[in-house]
Amino acid sequence: MVKVPTSYSKVRKAVFLDRDGVINRNITNYVQSIENVHIIPRSLQAIANLTKSEYAIVIVTNQSAIERRLITPEIAQQINNFILNKIQSTNGIIDGVYVCPHHPKTNCACRKPKPGMLIRAATDLNLDLEKSWLIGDAITDMQAAIAAKVNPILVSTGRGAKQASNLDNNTLAHIPFVKDLYEAAEYVLSNT
């Protein structure tokens, strides 16, 4: 489930992206097929813009539909490959894709809000987490970022608009809240 390049000797910064609700639309009953993939406007351009920067770009996505047996790992891979092809068709490059297939009750170390996928990516790709960003549409994304010492950004697409009120909590009040991945990418690039 992980697409990882061979190796990196230089430590890099990264932009971690949640998938559903950030790159493509979030669906109540999960993205279960390629037909369910609807790319959010401007997200592909945002990734292309980030690709031109010094940041590695890494997708970190909870996909409990796998352990719920709604989709197979092979179908999940097909969906990811479809999205990666869309990204590549607009000159974007994704350095790694990390998928947590577990049900929330499994209590694994990789499912956001836990930082497991980010920590694993940092090890695999030689990333400096403290100089990295995570763009997500859920408070669990923000919590995973904070747990990994990554800078979080919440987007209003996906579940973000509904979950933004939770940013009032003192531990989350500092988190930037922007319209979409395009604005989040602009924020990252202007705060580099």
| Domain unit count | 1
Largest sheet: 6 strands, parallel
Secondary-structure element string: EHEHEHEHEHEH
CATH C-level label: Alpha Beta
Give the class from helix and strand content and strand pairing.
alpha/beta
Roughly what percent helix? 25-40%
Total number of helices: 6
CATH homology-level superfamily: HAD superfamily/HAD-like
CATH topology: Rossmann fold
Radius of gyration: 15 Å
Anisotropy-based shape: globular
Short account of what is shown:
By secondary structure, this protein is of the alpha/beta class.
Give a description of the structure.
By secondary structure, this protein is of the alpha/beta class. The protein has one domain: HAD superfamily/HAD-like (Rossmann fold), CATH 3.40.50. The protein is 31% helix and 14% strand. The chain is built from 6 helices and 6 strands. The chain has a 6-stranded parallel sheet, sandwiched between helices. The longest helix has 17 residues. The chain is globular and about 40 Å long.
